[in-house]
Amino acid sequence: MVRMSAEERRESVIRAAMYEFARGGYHGTSTEAIAKRVGVSQPYLFRLFPNKQAIFVAAATRCLEDTRRVFERAADGLHGAEALAAMAGAYSRLIAEDPDKLQLQMQIYVAVADAERAGDPEFGELVRAGWLRLWDTVHLPLGGDVHETTTFMAHGMLINTLAAMGFPSGHRVWAGLRPAVGEGS
């Protein structure tokens, strides 16, 4: 049997945490469930990460970065309406093909609110920094137009909400989003 390095094991923990946190959120997910999914003991898990919050931060950071890279790849070399359509289509495919990413995004936003209510602004600062990188990745291909970027991101958040609530793609609530989602979706 081939042994994993600590970095490979850490990567396994992040992937497992993304899956578990997407389903149970921060408070509803135990580190025991994450350790079990990876096939390690809880003490080993805490040799890789100092605590549950650090695991969640790593999962949240990865989720936002994965989404940012989807936008970046889709818009590569494109501008304006072409970039908008490509990014919208790529995001639609991402949440259809990897619904855990969508669920984790929703859990991240709830966790920020919970942490800040509990007096912990650091987590929110980390998430907002990741979200701003998403914004900037979208903003430049859309010509630096604040209105276009805001509209795109607002449509994305509505798409997240409708998808998280389980509205099927043919439902009438999606009709107003069709032009913004683009041809590739």
Describe, in plain words, how this protein is organized in 3D.
The protein is mainly alpha-helical and 185 residues long. The chain has nine helices and no strands. The chain has helices at 6-24, 31-38, 42-48, 52-75, 80-97, 99-117, 121-139, 146-164, 178-181. α1 (6-24) packs across α2 (31-38), α4 crosses α6 and α6 crosses α7 (121-139). Residues 179-185 have low confidence and may be disordered.
Task: Give the topology.
Layout: H1 6-24, H2 31-38, H3 42-48, H4 52-75, H5 80-97, H6 99-117, H7 121-139, H8 146-164, H9 178-181
Please describe the biggest sheet, giving its number of strands, its sense, and whether it closes into a barrel: none
Mean pLDDT: 90
Shape type: globular
Distance between the termini: 42 Å
* Relative strand content: under 5%
What is the helix/strand order?
A: HHHHHHHHH
**Roughly how many Å is the radius of gyration?**
18 Å
The helix content, as a percent range, equals: over 70%
What structural category arises from helix and sheet content?
Answer: mainly alpha
Number of helices: 9
Care to count the β-strands? 0
